[in-house]
Structure formats: structure tokens, C-alpha cells
Amino acid sequence: MSRTRTALALGLAAAGALSVASVTATAAPSPLAGSTTVTPAGHSFKAALSGKATLKAGSVTVTCTVSVSTGTVPAAPGNQNPAGPVSSPITAPTYSSCTSSIPGVTPTVTTSGSWSVSMQNGTPITATMTVPVGGLVVHTTGLATCTVTAAPTAPANVGGSWVNGAPPSLTFTNASVPVTVTGGFGCPTSATSSVFNAVYKVTDTTDPAQQITVGP
Question: What is the rounded CA–CA span in Å between residue 174 and residue 166?
Fold first, then answer.
């Protein structure tokens, strides 16, 4: 069931590198991912925006000051992976108190589908939020009527980083997600990606005295 909020939302895809030593050489295998454990197992959490979030598509930037998503750490043994990330389902983030860089333009967002976030222990600890196909649609009204659809043809991975703490933080810095933009005058219809920046503070809602922690 979709939900509409005055808002914004968010995206990024991870990439790899390929090196060829000669015409007969083959690419070196990717290094194996290390082990990851997210604790406390089975605990619910809430990620709340700290400061502001910005989403830029072409020359248009939307800024929001309220955003929330919730989720649950997998129960044991699903909270451990000996050779890779640990993934958790999350609710589609909601965004409100949003403004546009274009005066007289009001943004709204509809989110839907199954979202998730995965954590990979390392230096730094990496986080990847997955946006489902068409899972975020931003619509503007006023002086410019535009529709921005994130992850238009395939799920999009929004790359970020995690820092353990009290509370821990989840940060997205210049994260990119594919988009399509339709509309008339003032709409960035040539944009094929958006840039997202945000910092979330994560709290354990099962036991507020504990912290969600990512380790080996």
C-alpha cells in the first residue's frame, strides 16, 4: 500500500574496477567480503534524520528536515554472515517539512514496495539501502509540474556508511540513484540520476538502553 507525504526521498549503486594486464589476461577475482554481525539480534530500530536531507536532480534541489524509517535486526542466526553483509527489511522512508530550490514549487512523494538496508563490516562499515523499482515518486506542483521516478527500471542501491556510537549514525554522501523526470517548463527532464545527502541517527526501540552495533 503506497503512502504519500510532503517530501523527498532518496539513492546509489556500488561499482567495481576491472584491470587488464595484457590481451590474454583475465580480471583478478574480487576480494572476499569479511564477516558481519549486527546486534542486538531481533531488536527493532528507528532511523531519524539529523539536520537536513537534500535531493538534487539537475538544477532542482529539494531539502527536507524530517525523515523517519523503521526496521528490525534479523533474529539469530540471521544477524550474522561469515562472508558478507547482513540485510534487514525497512519501511519506506517518509519525508516532510520539505522545500524546493524553485520558489513557488511544492514537492510531494509517494513511496511503495519492499525496501531494505544491508550492513557490511569493514573500515569503514558500509551500508546499502535498496529502493525497489519505482519505489519513490516525487511530484511537484505550482510554478513547475514535474514527476521524478527513482529506480525506474530496476532496484537501486543507495550507498552509505555506518558509524557505531551512542547513537550510531547512517550517512549518505553524494549518493546517486537513477531517475526519470517528466514534465514541462522548469523540470530537469534531461536528468538521469539524482544526488542524495543525509545523516540518520539510529535508535534501538526494543531496548533504548542498548545500541544497534555492526561488527565482525
Answer: 25
Beta-carbon count within 10 A of 31 CB: 6
pLDDT value of position 58: 86
The C-alpha atoms of residue 58 and residue 52 are separated, in whole angstroms, by 19
Predicted TM-score (pTM) of this structure? 0.81
Residue 112 CA to residue 93 CA, distance in Å, equals 10
Which residues have a Cβ under 8 Å from the Cβ of 210 and sit 6 or more positions away?
A: 40, 43, 204
Contact 135, 151 (CB under 8 A): yes
Give SS3 for 13: coil
What gap in Å lies between CA 165 and CA 160, rounded to an integer?
Answer: 16
Low-confidence ranges of the chain (pLDDT < 70): 1-32
Main-chain dihedrals φ then ψ at residue 59, nearest 5 degrees: -95, 5
What CA–CA distance (Å, rounded) separates 214 from 206?
17
